[in-house]
Amino acid sequence: xxxxxxxxxxxxxQPAAPAPTQAMAPARAKTxxxxxxxxxxxxxxxxxxxxxxxxxxxxxxYKSQMERSLGPENAEIWANNQIEGFTTAGIxxxxxLIALALLSRMxxxxxxxxxxxxxxxxxxxxxxxxxxxxxxxxxxxxxxxxSVVLTLAATVLLFLKPSSDYFxxxxxxxxxxxxxxx
Length: 182
Known about the structure:
Blueprint: E1 5-7, E2 13-15, H1 30-57, H2 60-70, H3 72-105, H4 111-131, H5 138-159, H6 161-181
Antiparallel strand pairs: 1-2
């Protein structure tokens, strides 16, 4: 007799009960899925900010403002430093947002705390860009503001009850899965 069938008391064949399997992972909350896509959009916006900064730094209006503020000999150095700063910060911020999006989607709740820090720091950066230190970089500031709004919306979604319930369920699922493997 095979393992897939057994005899019943009535004399007929019945399929054997399937072997117990691990519990299914909890379904992902729509709020988490939406936050994931918002964070990817925010990362893309941060990357879009790089060419916007390069174009802005190479505009005649921008160059003349820098020359008046810093002198002609320092204007080129300032422009290169601005471009390098926006490029480096943009790539790092985009990578952080993508990593936090993926971790949140996988069911980890702790990235929400990191997102709060990212939103605050990026919002402060936006305020500095709008206040204009030596020169006006409003084009870059508007792109940064869009990124802040997208990240803030994603962060709020990740703190809503359906998201919190999903993170708790995923944590419990990971614990039971680890206990079953031990």
